[in-house]
From TrEMBL:
This is Porin. Residues 23-32 have a biased composition (Basic and acidic residues). The lineage of its organism: Bacteria, Pseudomonadati, Bacteroidota, Cytophagia, Cytophagales. It comes from the Bacteria. Residues 1-32 are annotated as: Disordered. It holds the Pfam family Porin_10. InterPro entries: Porin_10. It comes from Negadavirga shengliensis.
């Protein structure tokens, strides 16, 4: 958890002049003093979960500067993901995460962080057309562009569209300016509608992502090729040059509810999802040296997916979901009950028959609010006949505590897979987890410190072993993770934010989790207005550190991270310098990566075995918001 507190506040933008009736034509965008009257306070956002859990609120669009320089999805988590050292590369969480989906998933999740899932979509209520353009130009041609537009058709009906793209050149051994490692194109369309009598509410969206990666396999170790040298970046020798992966996703989502009686609603959720994962490699090139010697080919020689001079793996996951339930408020108590039905399949050219599933769930939730600062929540879900998830949360002014207990299914990819290089057919048991989290909140005027603790017990954990195939652990793993978050303010202008976590893992399955023993982030920066408060500025340094560990390796053919015991990703502190500033409604960032390059014993650092982190380079970004 990161404490994000800004010393500055957005400048007031004003509000549209009031009218006697909602359908009265809106007046001009300028008031008598020629100041803009539309701004962040008149373009509000909210999420589906706000409505579903009867905690509806509308938020101002984000104009903050804190953390703005960490524009990449991995950096935005404050580097709590392990990736391959480039924007858009495969990534996994550093820490174990208890799943929210206890039923079947595809098992291909390394590009989840780059996908705008339906539950992450922002819905708008705008008094004027709202447009946001964010362009980031990273050193080494690591570029990202995001465009969003939303407007109200009527006072109670809004539509919007988002488009995003990533064009990230290879950081290792590019051969030309546009020799990209990652090409991502994503878009989403969303709408929200509320009836005139406020009894009916609808939110719907469609999202699509096509994520293409020219895989490199990492740097060839010097012990295999004596001419290969680490930390030469553009001149590095890599394993793969003729291999590519594609992750195509499409999601259709609908949520709507109707208030039958005051304080009592019925609702329905519909989802249709598709994920198509492919990997292609030319084996009549040097790329063949990277893969294992096993080759699985169909007896049907006309099947192009079994050609002996290529790898051509394909997996197609699809899912339909319907959920119906009721919810309401009884005084300060919120209640919810629902029935959910899921059906789906995993298909492959190599399968003799599709790997299909059908799941039925019963679930509900309860929340009580004694005051705004004293809250308890409880929710549960039962996957008939052998899966469940129970979650409880207690919030107070001084202490937050949560408990999660779950028994969840392994992924479809872990149980059945067919490809050119690997194949398996497993019948794994459910994975069990007990998780306790606690945070002590000691907040003062200029100083906030929040000690925290996470305790996990995981049994029957399914992982990819050293042979890069799935295996189920026979023992349990116990994780004790104490941590601390702190934020100090000096002279109202200087900020120091830090977080640190220590991880101790014991038990028979302890070695199946590769979490650095020490994980820390810190930033120190000046935050305040300059030039008669016309510019708000943040200028500072940011550092991160992970202790050495045998981090998981990555295999492109199956798009999975796996255990390895040969490559120690050694401890190395990374320091970046950043400058964020805002002029009216425009935000600009400069970030100089790896400021301390060449200052330590090692010339650089690794994130994943065979994949180096960024060398020193400058990034630039700009965000514009238009409210008319």
């Amino acid at each position: 958890m990161i404490l994000s507190v800004n010393a500055q506040q957005p400048q007031p933008q004003g509000t549209p002049e009031e009218t006697d009736q909602e359908d009265t034509p809106r007046r001009g965008l300028l008031d008598d003093s020629t100041k803009m009257v539309y701004g962040p306070k008149t373009s509000l956002i909210y999420y589906e979960k706000f409505l579903r859990y009867n905690k509806f609120e509308k938020l101002e669009v984000d104009t903050s500067l804190t953390g703005f320089h960490n524009y990449e999805p991995v950096a935005a988590t404050w580097y709590k993901y392990q990736d391959l050292g480039n924007l858009g590369s495969a990534a996994k969480p550093v820490f174990y995460e208890a799943p929210k989906q206890i039923g079947r998933t595809s098992g291909f999740h390394v590009y989840d962080i780059y996908h705008n899932s339906p539950d992450s979509i922002q819905y708008y209520d705008t008094k004027s057309p709202y447009t946001k353009i964010e362009a980031f130009f990273g050193g080494g041609n690591r570029n990202k562009l995001d465009i969003g537009f939303a407007r109200n058709i009527t006072p109670k009906w809004n539509v919007g569209i988002n488009y995003g793209t990533i064009r990230a050149r290879k950081t290792l051994n590019p051969t030309r300016r546009d020799d990209n490692m990652v090409v991502n194109d994503s878009y989403s369309i969303h709408t929200n509608y509320q009836s005139e009598n406020d009894k009916y509410f609808l939110m719907a969206n469609f999202t699509r992502m096509k994520h293409r990666v020219n895989e490199q396999g990492g740097i060839i170790p010097p012990e295999i090729d004596t001419t290969s040298v680490y930390f030469t970046y553009e001149d590095s020798k890599v394993w793969l040059r003729n291999s590519r992966a594609v992750d195509l996703r499409q999601d259709y989502h609908l949520y709507h509810q109707y208030e039958l009686l005051k304080g009592w609603q019925i609702y329905h959720v519909f989802d249709k999802k598709k994920q198509e994962v492919t990997f292609f490699s030319r084996l009549n090139t040097d790329d063949a040296l990277f893969f294992n010697e096993n080759r699985f080919n169909s007896s049907d020689t006309t099947n192009i997916h079994s050609a002996r001079d290529t790898t051509n793996n394909q997996n197609h996951f699809s899912e339909w979901r319907n959920e119906m339930g009721f919810k309401g408020d009884f005084g300060p108590v919120y209640y919810n009950a629902y029935l959910k039905f899921r059906t789906g399949r995993m298909a492959s050219y190599f399968f003799e028959h599709n790997n299909s599933f059908t799941e039925l769930y019963l679930g509900g939730a309860l929340r009580g609010e004694i005051t705004e600062k004293w809250v308890f929540e409880a929710e549960g879900e039962y996957l008939i006949p052998d899966g469940y998830r129970i979650h409880g949360l207690f919030i107070s002014p001084f202490l937050d505590v949560s408990y999660t207990k779950a028994s969840y299914r392994p992924t479809l990819a872990q149980e059945l897979y067919r490809g050119n290089h690997y194949r398996w057919d497993n019948n794994f048991s459910n994975i069990g987890v007990d998780q306790i989290k606690g945070v002590i909140k000691a907040d003062f005027q200029d100083f906030k410190i929040r000690p925290n603790m996470t305790i996990n017990r995981v049994n029957n954990f399914v992982f990819f072993n050293e042979e890069q195939v799935p295996e189920q652990a026979t023992g349990e793993a116990f994780m004790l993770i104490p941590g601390i978050d702190a934020h100090m303010v000096f002279a109202n202008k200087f900020h120091w934010q830090s977080e640190a976590y220590y991880t101790l893992i014991t038990g028979g399955a302890a070695d199946k989790f590769r979490i650095p023993q020490l994980f820390a982030n810190s930033r120190f920066f000046f935050d305040g207005p300059l030039f008669n408060e016309n510019i708000y500025v943040q200028l500072g340094l940011e550092g991160r550190f992970r202790s050495d560990n045998f981090a998981e390796g990555y295999t492109p053919a199956t798009q999975q991270f796996y255990l390895q015991n040969e490559f120690n990703v050694y401890a190395y502190p990374v320091v970046d310098a950043f400058l964020n500033f805002r002029i009216k409604r425009t935000r600009v960032l400069f970030r100089y990566n790896h400021l301390n390059a060449g200052m330590l014993e090692n010339p650089g650092y690794f994130i994943t075995p065979g994949y180096t982190g960024l060398k020193n380079m400058l990034d630039l970004g700009i965000s514009w918001s238009f409210f008319d």
